[in-house]
């Protein structure tokens, strides 16, 4: 069993309040969870309205499958025009 974790710092464009940020994040996180076999949460910068850190975690039977699932989730995350991924760290457990 392999656990993969990705922490992504992101800039959220065109938001002017925490309420707008939460609406964007809720949509992004919901779609990620629906499309992939992952867990997702905002893990930092909750009080800033143009910045966030999203953590994505998945568990599979092989490192290759875990890496593929995480890469697909990151590619999907990058497809949202309102987010710009700036720093990405991957950890293996």
TrEMBL record:
Annotated InterPro entries: DUF503 (IPR007546), TT1725-like_sf (IPR036746)
PANTHER family, per database record: DUF503 DOMAIN-CONTAINING PROTEIN, HYPOTHETICAL CYTOSOLIC PROTEIN
Protein name: DUF503 domain-containing protein
